[in-house]
Design goal:
Shape: elongated
CATH class of the largest domain: Alpha Beta
CATH topology of the largest domain: BirA Bifunctional Protein, domain 2
CATH architecture of the largest domain: 2-Layer Sandwich
Number of strands: 19
Oligomer: single chain
CATH superfamily of the largest domain: Bira Bifunctional Protein, Domain 2
Largest sheet: 8 strands, mixed
Helix content: 25-40%
Strand content: 25-35%
Strand order of the largest sheet: 7-11-12-19-18-17-14-13
Number of helices: 14
């Protein structure tokens, strides 16, 4: 019976064959222990000389790291194994011998591992992070599908900048200027006017020359947009969504979290509702904590966000930022037009902002004024303005950065481990 490591629990005391790679091995005279992986998981194969004979035993002992093979054996329960099972090997068939695999079971520098990212992905740690990433993606579709959202795919090549910044990758679109998308939000607003509640999931690009552990040049965003939803409605969707992600990872990635040494007690507490603090109160809090470098009107940096987050055991919303430091499309607070109806969701443990969201301006004249103030008067925004001319409604949305969320929930320090092939300031290889 051919199966995979993740499915061996169905075949206890039965003989199975698994296509696998040898992650590592050790032997003690008459027993060889093979650490096997097949993409679905890891299992230990035990080869006993007395049971398999000299030929198979010597073949097993001679196996080199990352050699591909078919392994046949009997599935046994083993409480000592992280998987709960091991394989009593009866036969080994080599498919392709691996020679001098560069990543050995020893310490390697970060740059070396990044140069060999295509091979580093095979390790237990990277396998666990990628499985958690996959679970977050699965749970994302589950949440939005169950809550009446329609998935819409905005373009990656655009003729304008959604955020109105200069951190864009420019290219030529035949005889026109074009940019790699920073965000699908503006297009998602158009989709929400057609379909009510929508979400996108795709790559975005920021030509930001940053080297921090929170930044990537290319990353993936989940961007919901909702018609007839105000600022408060938006916050409720966000906290329910993030709660769903955390609880799904806890439920379905126990082995991966254990592999990573993640403190699951910190994740068990990630349940809605989340605390909220206004920008005004956040500034007062930081000043009281000795942060004299920040005053009203300044944006928060990583140390500021971390200090605020450390006061809570859940993600925290910072709401009502000054309009002058936020995007042109955010709706002013009717009670105080100097601030906008927005929020950043700050993850605990120093992982920073994972969501930015707001209620959008739905009034044509106000949006036209904001566009003019931000120098966004080209015809590229004509279609976006027209959304406010033909049946405009209150609407809100947000964007969640996938890699920051993966890093936070899995507990890895740097977002470069949260994406299969990271694009960093000085890295385009492999």
């Amino acid at each position: 019976m051919k199966t995979t490591i993740s499915q061996v629990h169905k075949y206890v005391d039965q003989t199975v064959t698994i296509g696998a790679w040898l992650a590592n091995k050790r032997s003690s005279g008459k027993i060889a222990f093979l650490q096997l992986r097949d993409g679905s998981g890891f299992i230990q194969g035990v080869v006993v000389k007395e049971e398999v004979g000299e030929e198979i035993f010597q073949k097993a002992k001679a196996l080199t790291q990352e050699t591909s093979l078919y392994v046949t054996g009997t599935v046994r329960k083993d409480e000592r194994s992280p998987l709960g099972f091991e394989l009593n090997v009866t036969d080994v068939e080599v498919i392709h011998e691996s020679v001098d695999f560069p990543i050995t079971p020893k310490e390697h520098g970060t740059e070396f591992l990044m140069d060999n990212r295509h091979l580093w992905l095979r390790s237990r740690r990277q396998h666990a992070v990628m499985k958690i990433r996959n679970e977050i993606i699965r749970a994302t579709y589950e949440f939005f599908n169950e809550n009446g959202f329609v998935k819409v795919d905005p373009p990656i090549l655009t003729g304008s900048a959604p955020e109105g910044t200069t951190e864009l990758f420019h290219t030529k679109y035949f005889d026109e200027d074009a940019y790699l998308s920073q965000s699908g939000q503006l297009y998602m607003e158009a989709a929400a006017m057609a379909l009510g509640k929508v979400f996108s999931f795709g790559p975005t690009f920021r030509a930001e020359k940053s080297k921090t552990r929170r930044h990537l040049i290319e990353f993936w965003m989940i961007e919901p947009e909702m018609a007839f939803m105000d600022h408060e409605d938006n916050l409720v969707v966000q906290e329910n969504y993030v709660s769903h992600l955390a609880q799904s990872v806890l439920k379905n990635c126990q082995l991966e979290l254990k592999t990573l040494g993640r403190d699951v007690a910190k994740l068990e507490n990630i349940k809605a509702p989340f605390p909220r603090i206004s920008y005004d109160d956040a500034i007062k809090f930081l000043n009281e904590k000795g942060f004299d470098d920040i005053t009203w009107g300044d944006d928060f940096g990583a140390p500021h966000e971390t200090a605020i987050a450390e006061s809570f055991d859940k993600p925290v919303f910072i709401t009502h930022y000054p309009a002058k430091i936020k995007s042109f499309y955010m709706k002013p607070d009717p009670t105080n037009p100097e601030v906008v109806l927005c929020a950043d969701l700050i993850a605990p443990e120093g992982y920073g902002e994972i969501i930015g969201g707001s209620e959008r301006i739905d009034d044509y004249e106000l949006l036209a004024k904001r566009c003019e103030e931000h120098g966004l008067t080209s015809d590229a925004y004509k279609w976006y303005m027209e959304l406010r001319q033909y049946g405009s409604v209150p609407h809100s949305g947000f964007g969640l950065g996938l890699e920051r969320t993966v890093a936070w929930l899995s507990g890895v320090e740097h977002v470069r481990e949260a994406i299969p092939f990271p694009r960093l300031l000085n890295r385009l290889y492999p």
